[in-house]
Amino acid sequence: MPRALGHPEVIRLLASCDRRTPVGRRDFAILTVLVRLGLRAGEVAALGLTDIDWRAGEVVVRGKGNREERLPLPVDVGEAVVGWLKRGRPRGDCTKVFTRVRAPHGSLARSGVSAVVIGAAGRAGLEGISAAMSPS
Question: If you ran DSSP here, which 8-state letter would residue 79 be given?
Fold first, then answer.
């Protein structure tokens, strides 16, 4: 059973992302979505551009069993995603929120989201962290 992350660990995880780079902005947005909304790696990977309702401040999440849930979009999550979309995400035909930064610029798979978490944990000096972790 994955353990919950404490606030200091979450801060270290997020701080490990260099938001001056496209990869860092993407990773920061992914980690913020995971931590704040409590989504699974597959749910983050599946987020489409049309799943975010900016006017209503909601995000549509399709989870296990193709269930659809509308979650509130906290301001910090929206800001992290906007930072990626406006100043990092490559242009292209991909309709997913999170894409690969290097060509080909297709959607990031669940394994890619997990790799982002593992990479950030390594940079932050946190061991045994996976995309299944949640904040305490």
Answer: H
> Three-state DSSP class for 72?
strand
CA distance 88 to 38: 23
Q: Which CATH architecture has domain 7-124?
A: Orthogonal Bundle (1.10)
What is the tens place of the pLDDT at every residue in 107-136?
A: 999 999 999 999 999 999 998 877 665 454
SS3 content of the chain, % helix, strand, coil (to 5): 50, 15, 40
Question: What is the pTM assigned to this prediction?
Answer: 0.91
- Amino acid symbol at 72: P
Two tokens, residue 26: 């993407």
What is the residue extent of each domain of the chain? 7-124
Render the burial of 3-21: b for 16+ CB within 10 Å, e for the rest.
Answer: eebeeebbebbbebbebee
- The Cα–Cα gap between 13 and 32 comes to 10
37-78 pLDDT, tens digit per residue, is 999 999 999 999 999 999 999 999 987 787 899 999 999 999
